Amino acid sequence: MKMSQKLALILLGAAASALVGTGVIRAADDEVDAATKAKIAQFDKGPATIDVSAYPAGIQKNYAVFREKCTLCHTLARPINSDFALPDEWSRYIKRMMHKPGSMISNTQAKKIYEFLVYDASVRKKALFDEKLAAAAPADKAEAEAKLNELLQAYAQK
Ligand code: HEC
Nearest-CA neighbor of 148 among 49, 123, 83, 109? Predict the structure, then answer.
């Protein structure tokens, strides 16, 4: 192989890995491993509703959006019983769900669902929420607390 051809190949390889890195090409993004599959099957078997009667009115409204949008492809039990709790875990996962073909979730709806899930986790999964907060790096912990407080303030009046 000529030197120039080798160089071209190297450059092509670098460009491809850069694309994978930026997410333009998503490497087998939709595959989940066997352990995750088993875990998800357990979530699906758990309770499929949440008693939101003691939640702020605005959060109760968001529950309706969550119920409508997150049942298109699987049971509501799946997110209800999932072990995601912290704001960043939910925002990352909601984005993942938005990228699934045919999900039809707008940014406004996603925000409402996010706020519902974070509020709900901080109340219904408080032990898990606190455990994850305690294990987080100080900066991440402070950020998660700030996000929760902002949300609590926003919904206190609603
Ligand atoms: C377009 C189809 C689709 C929609 C809509 C959808 N999901 Fe999913 N969801 C999936 C698929 C497929 C999986 C299997 C695991 C994966 O690919 O991440 C999944 C898995 C999950 C899991 C388990 C992930 C794990 O690793 O524990 C949670 C939690 C979840 N979804 C939450 C939601 C929430 C919250 C919404 C609404 C914002 C939603 N899903 C809407 C397709 C969808």
Answer: 123
As for ligand 1, residues whose beta carbon falls within 6 Å of it are 30, 32, 36, 39-40, 69-70, 72-74, 78-79, 82, 84, 93-94, 96-97, 100, 102-103, 105, 113
pTM: 0.84
For residue 25, what pLDDT band results from cuts at 50, 70 and 90? Answer: very low
For residue 31, what pLDDT is reported?
Answer: 79
- DSSP class of 125: T
CB 70 within 8 A of CB 113: yes
User: Strands, DSSP E only, in the chain?
Assistant: none
pLDDT (mean) for 31-40: 93
pLDDT for residue 50 is more than 50:
yes
Every domain of the chain and the residues it spans: 1-31, 32-156
Compute, in angstroms, the gap from residue 83 CA to the centroid of ligand 1: 13
We find that the CATH architecture of domain 32-156 is Orthogonal Bundle (1.10)
